[in-house]
Amino acid sequence: MSADNTTPPSVPGSASSSPATKHAAGAFDIRNFIGALLGLYGIILTLMGIFGDKAYDKTGGINANLWAGLVLLVMSAIFMTWARLKPILVPANVEPPDDDATRPAPKRRPSGH
Amino acid sequence: MPGLSHLSTATLIDAKPVDYLIIALYFVFVLGIGFMARRAVSDSIDFFLSGRSLPAWVTGLAFISANLGAVEIMGMSANGAEFGVATVHYFWVGAIPAMLFLGVVMMPFYYGSKVRSVPEFMFRRFGTGAHLVNAISFAVAQLLIAGVNLYLLGSIVHALLGWPLWVALLVAAAIVLSYITLGGLSAAIYNEVLQFFVIVAALLPLTLIGLHRVGGYEGLKQKITEFAATAPASADVPPADWQLNSWPGQALTGFESPFWSVVGIVFGLGFVLSFGYWTTNFVEVQRAMASNSISAARKTPIIGSFPKMFVPFIVILPGMVAAVLVKEIAELKAGGTPAGGASGKGVAYNDSLLLLMRDILPNGLLGLAIAGLLAAFMAGMAANISAFNTVFSYDLWQRYIRKDHSDDYYLRIGRLATVGATFIAIFTATIASSFSNIMDYLQSLFGFFNAPLFATFILGMFWKRMTATAGWVGLSAGTLSAVLVAYLSEDAFGTLSLGVIPLSGQGAAFAAASTAFVVDIVLSIVVSLVTEPKPAGSLRGLVYSETPREDLVDPEEAKLPWFRRTLPLAGVSLALVIALNFLV
Questions:
Q1: Backbone phi, then psi, for B54, in 5-degree steps?
Q2: Is A87 on the interface with B (CB under 8 A)?
Q3: Does B444 fall in a domain?
């Protein structure tokens, strides 16, 4: 679940605006988190399905843990692959919304302008 | 009673170490996301609106998850067990059309005017009066609802794991508090996305195994038909074809006439209640405001509408299965009063999902299902609190108490507001634990606030003549009229209601909301005609006729393929939901 592949090495078109890129809030990729958690669940359930109590009386004769575990592993692989193939494009800039006279003005970036 | 002593010592569900491991892993990830999101928070816009940087699929799923809390999952499966298929109206009539309307029509105003909250839009359009009414009622409502969510969360932990209620409350509150204060809205939203997948992973196997156990959907139909035919008349079980067809939905509305039942569902639930909730509730709208462009903001509720369409299958179906498969729920439905349940005061329909989990899930999947429920309840509370701290910091503290401080100052106030809100939620949760009925009525009362809000918003967005005075007069009068109707109905406020108007249950709520809507519209028009309107120049971005078209659309959007554009997506969603309404 390393987050290092979330920052694209070079974003076409916005490579010049690196200070703004650093400011972006989505600096890590949620898809890797989802993939990792579902993957861990998939491993646990698959192992339970093979070695654990299959509880056929409850499930009506299906090895539910095994099937659910395998599906979770597939979902995990899909999320990981998606995150790898299409890394997050960090927004070039976020407009400060405080240019409004009707609103009490917070001093957003005292040194900025 | 032998059953009672057994249940008071043992927990409702027998969790094994592997189940605890799965639950613990979930919490590790939740807190991990909080820490990761903290690194990205540099100013108050990051904290309150996620820097307006999230992609539409993330905010779209968060939009659904923020609403997929305790009330939705437990409540809708309970309705499924009691009334059957008609419960889908809460989704296909009561949510999707309003979500599409929010994305297509209203979101350009919210996002394009760069307001940071729904009450702030109110301020820009109508000034102080309407803003104060909206901001204060919203903030108070969020605190109380966060308390209800926390109480439900604590009672589930208590029932499942056997922890004392107060320990469960404190632990749950501490976890929610830590990830929101660390990462702000980003942490809340990312957790909502993660939670969405955990909930699906929890409920989908439950539904499939449940259906397998009753012999598929055909088997379920047959069992429900047999059940309805053999249940004692005193139990008042809805006839099988009421339970297996969504229209006309008399079991849900409590109306005798099928015609008025359809009218009640379409106008009361589908129009007034649902448009009020989905288009003006800042908890929902905040998710869309966190997205990275006006196009993504508009697509947020539209993308959310697709998973929302299929949520009923994994929420309502398990409820229906539970009503024929779980011994206690079947006994309850046949008019009995089985002991036990999560509350310890007897089994209720709200226990359907928990008892079904107990009966059909093997250890392992059981842990995943518990993690899913805990996830849902925590996210519900986190959504309430993150919306509360934005409105409190920007709309109340910054506007009326301490103006013109540095951004760091408001970021700090936001974190303090989160801590304060969590403590108040613990307090309201303990009240809820002793007066659970009162909290139900409070929630329906807050539901009434939304109907006049929607009336005021929609009139204000499309009629430039509407005045500031009309804004607050319409809003207050509409809300009061809803309370009055609820008070005069048979049971909208429980025993407090007088019973002058012969309506009960959902029917009474529909009537109260509709009255509020009409009173608000009529009064707003009358008052507007005798008061001075705002100068047209100040309404740009707030009123349709005064806003240039290019302010309302994203110029980039035309370059995207059709399936990533707002209007075609909304069209597909609408066609799908209409088809679903005719099929089921």
A1: -90, 145
A2: no
A3: no
Question: Using one digit for the tens of pLDDT, what is the confidence trace for B7-26?
Answer: 434 567 777 888 889 988 98
Q: CB-based contact (8 Å) between A25 and chain B?
A: yes
Any B CB within 8 A of A19 CB: no
A32 touches chain B (CB under 8 A): no
DSSP-assigned states of every residue in B123-155: HHHH-HHHHHHHHHHHHHHHHHHHHHHHHHHHH
CATH number at residue B173: 1.20.1730.10
User: What's the gap in Å between the CA of A8 and the closest CA on chain B?
Assistant: 16
Q: Closest approach of chain B CAs to the CA of A12, in angstroms?
A: 16
Cβ atoms of residues B324 and B214 within 8 Å: yes
Q: Could you report the per-residue pLDDT of B171-184, keeping only the tens digit for each?
A: 888 888 887 777 77
Go through chain A and tell me how many residues it has: 113
**Domain span including residue B408:** 2-243+290-434
A58, A65, A105: residue with CB nearest B360: A58
- Asked if residue B232 belongs to a domain, the reply is yes
- Higher model confidence: residue B291 or residue B253? B291
Size of interface A-B (CB pairs under 8 A): 149
Q: What is the mean pLDDT of residues B511-517?
A: 84
* A71 has a pLDDT exceeding 90: yes
B481-486 average pLDDT score: 83
d(CA B318, CA B532): 56
